[in-house]
Design brief:
about 200 residues; five-stranded antiparallel beta sheet; three-stranded antiparallel beta sheet; about 25% strand
Length: about 200
Amino acid sequence: GMGGLIQAIKKSLLAWDGDYMTGAEVNRILISNNKAIGVVLSSGQIFNSKIIISGADLYNTFNKMLLGVSLPAEFSTGLKRIDYRSATSKINLVIEGELKFNCYDGPVPGTFHICEDVAYMERAADEAKYGRISEDLVIEGCMPSVVDNTLAPEGKQVISLMVQYTPYVLAEGIWDEAQKQRLYHKTISKLAQYTNILDLNIL
């Protein structure tokens, strides 16, 4: 799981006498002679380095962290054309008990999809296109705790749900807490058609 990957990176870094910080927000990338030479944290602390690697998206890296830097016109145009809007929502759950599927009695897979057919997908996409939350949500589930038991205490499971298609802009209202809860309940309702999720304790 991701926890194991992070620990592996940390172990490798320390083996090479490296150091790391957590909870350190990078505010700006320092540039000298058209070369990145360091970073400034939001706390004002400065770190210089021969190599700077950004894990942020292109917009934040080039438009927010590289203030005052003149970028090639074609590159800048390309940045502005990137559409970050998404028709996917993510819901993370921690459940107490074991998720079971109605269609079979085998072990719970690490990933699963709820999508009946192409027409089902089209209905979900059409609803989102017109700003509505579909009753026929396409759900892609990932259960990393099935393969990495360090991600959840014994007797519990972590479930990450990618829910499609959800409108970026709603036809009525905005994505306030009430709308988020509406999407959550629709997702759980759809999941309940195929699993025992309602018999479990969602923490």
